[in-house]
Every structure is written in C-alpha cells, then in structure tokens.
Design brief:
The chain has 168 residues and is mainly α. The protein is 71% helix and 2% strand. The longest helix is centred in the C-terminal third of the chain and has 43 residues, at 125-167.
C-alpha cells in the first residue's frame, strides 16, 4: 500500500473515510486473495490518478472508488454472498449513504461499478473509469493470488522432493 500512502493530496481527500470505524471493518474481509480494504485502496488510487490526469472530478472519484466495496460479509447470507457480484453495489451505496454525504456522481460510481453485471450503465465518465479500473485491479489480484498459490505448491513439492533425495 506504500505507493498511495506517500501521496499527500490523495490522503487528504480520503482521510475522512479512513477515520470511520465501520468502513475500516472491510479490512477484515477477504476479497480477491487480499483484504477488501487493500482492493478498495488500489481501485481508488488508480482511479484518482487517471481522473486527475484527464482533468475530471478526481476528488469525488477517489472517495467514491474507496467506498465502492463498502460492505462486510456478515451483511449477506452465505447463499447471498455467492451472488454478491449482482447485489453488493446496492448494499455498498446504502452503507456509504448512511455514513457519508455523497454527491450524485459518487452514488453513481458506487452503484454502477459492477456494470454490466448490473443492468444500469454508468452515467458519468468518472463512473466508467472506476468500473474499468475495478475490473483490471480484480484481474491483477486474482492472478497474483493464484500465482502465489501455484508457486507455494511447487515450492512445497520441491521441498518434499529434496527430502526424498536426501534420504537416498
């Protein structure tokens, strides 16, 4: 997480979100092989950088992107959790609206980030950017988690093979 911790402007923009204890509970939820908080930071920071470069509303984007997965696993039953890709945007918007004052753009970013899995397309360019960044970041995180899993198995097999060879 170091790359965004060094960006003072970004931290000043999202600082009020990070002071909310309910929001910080997402740090206890696994998401794409990491915590939901780590995932949200990546999506938020990269969306912030892109929208700033494009001279769009990077401040609202940074905050909304950080809130885009603001739900905890206990807010869904086990059955519902399997379908959370379709249902969590609404829950995230409810949670974010309960704890923060949101602009229409921020609401759209949070609600539409799972397009096309939800039928309503994003209404703002910033919303499209967050939706795309979320997908790229998720693909990276899935790839990284499977890579680590795969190579840890290879390392374990190599260690076992070395033990076998040492005995002979």
């Amino acid at each position: 997480m170091n790359y965004f911790q060094k960006d003072c402007e970004y931290n000043n923009i999202v600082n009020h979100v990070l002071k909310n204890p309910k929001f910080l509970e997402i740090n206890n939820c696994r998401h794409h092989g990491i915590t939901r908080l780590e995932h949200s930071f990546r999506v938020s920071y990269f969306s912030y950088k892109i929208t700033k470069k494009l001279r769009l509303d990077y401040k609202n984007t940074a905050v909304a992107a950080l809130l885009h997965d603001f739900f905890t696993n206990d807010q869904f039953s086990k059955k519902e959790l399997r379908l959370s890709a379709f249902r969590h945007p609404k829950k995230c918007l409810e949670n974010a609206s309960e704890f923060f004052s949101l602009s229409d753009m921020q609401k759209d970013i949070i609600y539409s980030h799972m397009f096309p899995l939800i039928p309503r397309p994003p209404r703002y360019l910033e919303s499209w950017i967050v939706s795309m960044v979320d997908k790229v970041v998720a693909a990276y995180e899935f790839t990284l988690s499977y890579y680590k899993l795969y190579f840890s198995k290879i390392e374990n097999m190599a260690a076992i093979a070395m033990l076998i060879l040492v005995r002979f």
